[in-house]
Amino acid sequence: MKVRAVLAATKTTSVREVLRSKTPDFIRQEFYSLLMAHFAVRGLMHDAALQTDEDPDRFSFLHAVRICAANYLYSALFPPNQRKTSHKSVLEEILQEHIVSSRSRRNPRGVKCKMTNFPLRPRHINPLPPIDIRKIIKIIK
């Protein structure tokens, strides 16, 4: 994964908007800890993807972060012989939510007010008619 994408994902899924540390050394330490936490969540997503032979990018990172945050407090309560069971249940929860691909959109991306580089959304746009896949795809035997 590219560094810019990792930083964007860390920024959008982080609970805190501002780093708490005051000195440069502690800011660096806090920043590296956020990157390590991101790497750990991505590692869990990779483990979950290996179970189903799917691409790890098909799973929701935010969903995985929420699962890890919810199960973090309980992980210390498990004795070492039950940690594999806890790990397996976390992976099963990650597998429950897939993300929807945004490629080949029928409606172009747009925004209501101009605060980004995306074009403005038209005020009155008629929705596109539904696609009948049976008319488009023909199966040849």
How far apart, in Å, are the first and last alpha carbons? Answer: 41 Å
Overall shape? flat
Question: Could you give a short account of the major beta sheet?
Answer: none
- Give the integer mean of the pLDDT values: 76
Catalogue the unreliable spans.
none
Number of helices: 5
- Beta-sheet strand percentage? under 5%
Oligomeric status: single chain
What letter string, H or E per element, gives the SSE order? HHHHH
Summarize the structure.
This protein has helices at residues 3-13, 24-52, 61-75, 83-94, 133-136.
Name the descriptors.
141 residues; 5 helices; mainly alpha; single chain
Q: Mind explaining what this structure looks like?
A:
50% of the residues lie in helices and 0% in strands. The protein is built from 5 helices and no strands. The chain has helices at residues 3-13, 24-52, 61-75, 83-94, 133-136. Helix 2 crosses helix 3, helix 2 (24-52) packs across helix 4 (83-94) and helix 3 (61-75) runs antiparallel to helix 4. The radius of gyration is 21 Å and the shape is flat. The mean pLDDT is 76.
